[in-house]
Amino acid sequence: MANKHPKTEQLGKKFNEMKPEEHKAIASKGGIATGIAQAKERETMRIAKMLVGLPLQGANKEKLLSAGVPEGDITQMTALLQGQLNAGIQGNPAAARIFLSLIGEPVEQILTVNNTNDELKKSFEETMKLLKGK
Q1: Residue 99 CB burial class (10 angstroms; 0-12, 13-18, ≥19)
Q2: 111 dihedral zone (left: phi>0; alpha: psi -120 to 50; beta)
Q3: Residues 111, 128: contact at Cβ < 8 Å?
Q4: φ, ψ for residue 119 (rounded to 5)?
Q5: Are 76 and 52 in contact (CB under 8 A)?
Q6: For each of the chain's 134 residues, which pLDDT tens digit applies?
Q7: What is the DSSP letter of 19?
Q8: How much is the pTM?
Protein backbone atom coordinates (compact mmCIF):
# COMPACT_ATOMS: atom_id res chain seq x y z
CA MET A 1 0.00 0.00 0.00
CA ALA A 2 1.37 3.39 -0.97
CA ASN A 3 2.02 6.08 1.60
CA LYS A 4 -0.83 8.55 1.83
CA HIS A 5 0.35 12.10 2.21
CA PRO A 6 -2.27 14.72 3.08
CA LYS A 7 -1.02 17.12 0.40
CA THR A 8 -1.36 14.56 -2.39
CA GLU A 9 -4.83 13.65 -1.17
CA GLN A 10 -5.80 17.33 -1.39
CA LEU A 11 -4.64 17.35 -5.00
CA GLY A 12 -6.86 14.38 -5.76
CA LYS A 13 -4.02 12.46 -7.43
CA LYS A 14 -0.81 10.76 -6.47
CA PHE A 15 2.36 12.27 -7.84
CA ASN A 16 3.16 9.17 -9.87
CA GLU A 17 -0.27 9.42 -11.51
CA MET A 18 0.15 13.06 -12.57
CA LYS A 19 1.14 14.31 -15.97
CA PRO A 20 4.70 15.67 -16.06
CA GLU A 21 3.39 19.22 -16.52
CA GLU A 22 1.24 18.97 -13.38
CA HIS A 23 4.12 17.57 -11.36
CA LYS A 24 6.44 20.30 -12.65
CA ALA A 25 3.94 23.04 -11.72
CA ILE A 26 3.62 21.72 -8.17
CA ALA A 27 7.39 21.36 -7.82
CA SER A 28 7.82 24.91 -9.11
CA LYS A 29 5.41 26.26 -6.49
CA GLY A 30 7.38 24.41 -3.81
CA GLY A 31 10.64 25.88 -5.08
CA ILE A 32 9.19 29.38 -5.04
CA ALA A 33 7.88 28.90 -1.49
CA THR A 34 11.30 27.64 -0.39
CA GLY A 35 12.99 30.67 -1.93
CA ILE A 36 10.62 33.02 -0.11
CA ALA A 37 11.21 31.24 3.21
CA GLN A 38 14.99 31.41 2.73
CA ALA A 39 14.80 35.12 1.90
CA LYS A 40 12.84 35.73 5.10
CA GLU A 41 15.40 33.77 7.09
CA ARG A 42 18.28 35.79 5.58
CA GLU A 43 16.48 39.06 6.33
CA THR A 44 15.83 37.98 9.92
CA MET A 45 19.52 37.12 10.35
CA ARG A 46 20.57 40.44 8.83
CA ILE A 47 18.30 42.34 11.24
CA ALA A 48 19.50 40.29 14.24
CA LYS A 49 23.15 40.99 13.35
CA MET A 50 22.36 44.68 13.00
CA LEU A 51 20.62 44.76 16.39
CA VAL A 52 23.43 43.06 18.33
CA GLY A 53 25.92 45.49 16.81
CA LEU A 54 24.05 48.60 17.98
CA PRO A 55 25.62 50.69 20.75
CA LEU A 56 24.26 50.14 24.23
CA GLN A 57 22.67 53.00 26.16
CA GLY A 58 21.71 53.80 29.74
CA ALA A 59 22.14 51.72 32.86
CA ASN A 60 23.31 48.61 31.02
CA LYS A 61 26.12 50.60 29.42
CA GLU A 62 27.12 51.97 32.84
CA LYS A 63 27.20 48.44 34.29
CA LEU A 64 29.56 47.27 31.56
CA LEU A 65 31.77 50.35 31.92
CA SER A 66 32.00 49.76 35.68
CA ALA A 67 32.92 46.13 34.97
CA GLY A 68 35.89 47.36 32.95
CA VAL A 69 34.62 46.83 29.40
CA PRO A 70 36.21 49.41 27.06
CA GLU A 71 33.61 51.87 25.76
CA GLY A 72 34.31 50.93 22.13
CA ASP A 73 33.39 47.31 22.86
CA ILE A 74 30.03 48.05 24.47
CA THR A 75 27.28 46.80 22.15
CA GLN A 76 24.04 44.89 22.52
CA MET A 77 26.08 41.72 21.91
CA THR A 78 28.38 42.59 24.81
CA ALA A 79 25.35 42.98 27.07
CA LEU A 80 23.92 39.69 25.83
CA LEU A 81 27.18 37.89 26.56
CA GLN A 82 27.43 39.54 29.98
CA GLY A 83 23.91 38.34 30.76
CA GLN A 84 24.82 34.81 29.69
CA LEU A 85 27.92 34.92 31.88
CA ASN A 86 25.95 36.26 34.85
CA ALA A 87 23.32 33.53 34.48
CA GLY A 88 26.09 30.90 34.46
CA ILE A 89 27.72 32.43 37.53
CA GLN A 90 24.37 32.39 39.35
CA GLY A 91 24.11 28.64 38.82
CA ASN A 92 22.33 28.17 35.49
CA PRO A 93 24.21 25.19 34.02
CA ALA A 94 22.81 25.67 30.50
CA ALA A 95 23.98 29.29 30.48
CA ALA A 96 27.41 28.24 31.75
CA ARG A 97 27.68 25.54 29.07
CA ILE A 98 26.72 27.97 26.29
CA PHE A 99 29.12 30.64 27.46
CA LEU A 100 32.01 28.24 27.88
CA SER A 101 31.39 26.70 24.47
CA LEU A 102 31.39 30.20 22.93
CA ILE A 103 34.89 30.84 24.23
CA GLY A 104 36.09 27.34 23.34
CA GLU A 105 36.67 26.14 26.90
CA PRO A 106 35.93 22.57 27.95
CA VAL A 107 33.54 22.66 30.89
CA GLU A 108 35.51 20.08 32.86
CA GLN A 109 38.69 22.19 32.88
CA ILE A 110 36.97 25.36 34.05
CA LEU A 111 34.88 24.11 36.94
CA THR A 112 36.79 22.74 39.91
CA VAL A 113 36.01 22.50 43.59
CA ASN A 114 38.73 22.82 46.18
CA ASN A 115 36.44 22.80 49.19
CA THR A 116 36.14 19.88 51.58
CA ASN A 117 32.44 20.53 52.24
CA ASP A 118 30.66 17.29 51.20
CA GLU A 119 27.37 19.06 50.41
CA LEU A 120 29.17 21.53 48.13
CA LYS A 121 31.02 18.69 46.37
CA LYS A 122 27.74 16.81 45.84
CA SER A 123 26.12 19.95 44.42
CA PHE A 124 29.13 20.48 42.16
CA GLU A 125 28.99 16.90 40.88
CA GLU A 126 25.27 17.24 40.11
CA THR A 127 25.94 20.49 38.25
CA MET A 128 28.73 18.85 36.26
CA LYS A 129 26.38 16.02 35.24
CA LEU A 130 23.86 18.62 34.00
CA LEU A 131 26.55 20.53 32.15
CA LYS A 132 27.78 17.37 30.47
CA GLY A 133 24.21 16.51 29.51
CA LYS A 134 24.15 13.22 31.40
Answers
A1: buried
A2: beta
A3: yes
A4: -65, -40
A5: yes
A6: 455 555 655 567 777 788 888 878 888 888 999 999 999 999 999 999 999 888 899 999 999 999 899 998 999 999 999 999 989 888 888 888 888 888 888 776 555 545 456 766 677 777 777 777 65
A7: -
A8: 0.54
